[in-house]
Amino acid sequence: MDESKEQGRPVLVTGGNRGIGLAIARAFAAAGDRVAVTYRSGEPPEGLLGVRCDVTDSASVDAAFTEVEGALGPVEVLVANAGVTRDQLIMRMPEEDFAAVVDTNLSGSWRVAKRATKGMLRLKRGRIVFISSVVGLLGSAGQTNYAASKAGLVGLARSLARELGSRSITANVVAPGFVETDMTAELTDDLQKSYRAQIPLGRFASVDEVAGVVRFLASPEAAYINGAVIPVDGGLGMGH
């Protein structure tokens, strides 16, 4: 891979307007890359190019990429981070909730990866990073939809790694564990204590700790890492 454009590369982070996605976007921007984020609602973050995008809609994905390409050039680094949850025990889970989560988390990642590869194949270089979850590897009661969607990203990434590797395009997966976000902040103190007790490091990750690993996978130092699943979970999912 030609790393001459390591600085100032066009980077796109889906779901990059808050939480882990925003931390990832800011990490790339701090390293000198030109960063765009997709968002569905609210306002885009300051200092980053924000484009509205619904990853469940191919036309919306295409329009978002066209906008980013017009402003920044062909996307060289894609971080597929957009995701949703609709937790429920399987006996009570409506089929629509299973389908909606898989359509956003897994099919949505496939849609943005498919669109990104157009430009990457022309450039003969690229980095794709999928944001999965320890839940996709360990499983979680009440999250059959979410866990299945996040596990599916592993097969997606490894297939792309084989399909696109000869063009100097890598595809890898980052699987965070519990991370300090607005979502985990809403958990009760007892639940948070229970979760921390299962983590060898005894704490949740910061969003920056996840962002640093994603940024590394897109760096020159990681040029030979392809088809990997990297846990950032404090040891929670060891052996998986």
Could you characterize what this model shows?
- The chain has 240 residues and is an alpha/beta fold.
- It has a single domain, classed as Rossmann fold, CATH 3.40.50.
- It is 44% helix and 15% strand.
Helix content: 40-55%
Strand residue content: 15-25%
The CATH class name reads Alpha Beta
**Spatial sequence of strands, sheet with the most strands:** 3-2-1-4-5-6-7
Describe the main β-sheet briefly: 7 strands, parallel
Please name the CATH topology. Answer: Rossmann fold
Helices and strands, in order, run as EHEEHEHEHHEHHHE
Give a short overview.
With 240 residues, the chain is an alpha/beta fold.
Secondary-structure blueprint:
Blueprint: E1 10-13, H1 19-30, E2 34-39, E3 49-52, H2 58-72, E4 77-80, H3 95-123, E5 126-131, H4 134-138, H5 144-164, E6 169-176, H6 182-185, H7 189-197, H8 207-217, E7 229-232
Parallel strand pairs: 1-2, 1-4, 2-3, 4-5, 5-6, 6-7
Name a few traits of the molecule.
240 residues, alpha/beta, Rossmann fold, 7-stranded parallel β-sheet, 8 helices, 44% helix, disordered N terminus
